[in-house]
């Protein structure tokens, strides 16, 4: 079962909800995580069950980062607002760095999110099983 996290900055939350609603069927069998408000907004508009963490600025990005550090996520859709400074930018940078370390794909805009979700729907994420199986201790 794929494990996927959703994060969206304030001005990107509507875009995230619309995207997840459009691809709801693709996510129905995955274990889903999200930062607080983003997860609430998605659950209001879909039938998806999402384990919610705190809001990003209050530690939610770090909570998702902990899953990344343990290589427990397969994909993150993180719709960032590139035109707005974020008070918790160090947390965001740390999360993205951890994704690079663990080889976890991250979509930071709708175009990349769509490519990754369509790849996921085709079953192209089988390589993640090898990462989990052969992860060095």
Question: Mind explaining what this structure looks like?
Answer:
By secondary structure, this protein is of the alpha/beta class. The chain has a single domain (3-133), classed as 3-Layer(aba) Sandwich (Rossmann fold). The protein has helices at residues 13-22, 24-27, 36-45, 60-69, 89-102, 110-122, 127-133; strands spanning 3-8, 31-34, 50-52, 75-79, 106-107. The chain has a five-stranded parallel beta sheet, sandwiched between helices. Helix 1 packs across helix 3 (36-45) and helix 4 runs parallel beside helix 5. The mean pLDDT is 90.
Low-confidence stretches: none
The CATH topology annotation reads as: Rossmann fold
Q: Rough shape?
A: globular
Order of secondary-structure elements: EHHEHEHEHEHH
Radius of gyration: 14 Å
For the record, give the distance between the C-alpha atoms at the N and C termini, rounded to a whole number: 22 Å
Profile the largest sheet.
5 strands, parallel
**CATH architecture grouping:** 3-Layer(aba) Sandwich
Number of strands: 5
Number of contiguous helices: 7
Indicate the mean pLDDT. 90
What helical percentage do the residues reach?
40-55%
Total number of distinct structural domains: 1
| Beta-strand percent range | 5-15%
Q: CATH H level: which superfamily? A: Methylglyoxal synthase-like domain
Give the class-level CATH name: Alpha Beta
* Main β-sheet, spatial strand arrangement: 3-2-1-4-5
User: Which structural class matches the secondary elements?
Assistant: alpha/beta
Domain MGS-like: 1-137
Active site: 61
Family: Belongs to the methylglyoxal synthase family.
Function: Catalyzes the formation of methylglyoxal from dihydroxyacetone phosphate.
